[in-house]
Amino acid sequence: MTLWIDEDKVFRLIRERKPKGIVVNAPGGLLRQTRTLIEKIEAEYGIPCFLVGDSCFGICDTMDDDVTKLGADLALHIGHNAVVEEIGEFTHLIDAKDDVKFDAIIEKSIPTFKQYKRIGLATFSQHLDELEPAKRQLEAAGLEVYLGRKNNLLFESQTFGCDFSTIYPMSKEVDAFCYLGESEFHAVGVALATGKPTYLLDPYLDEIRDMKEEAEIRRKRSILAVYNALDARVFGVVTGLKEGQKMLGRSRWISKRLEMNGRKVVQLAMRDITPDRLAPFRDIEAFVQTACPRISIDGFTFDRPVLSIPQADALVGLMEGRGMGEFLERPKWIELTTGLIPKSR
Ligand code: SF4
Question: DSSP label at 27?
Answer without folding.
Answer: -
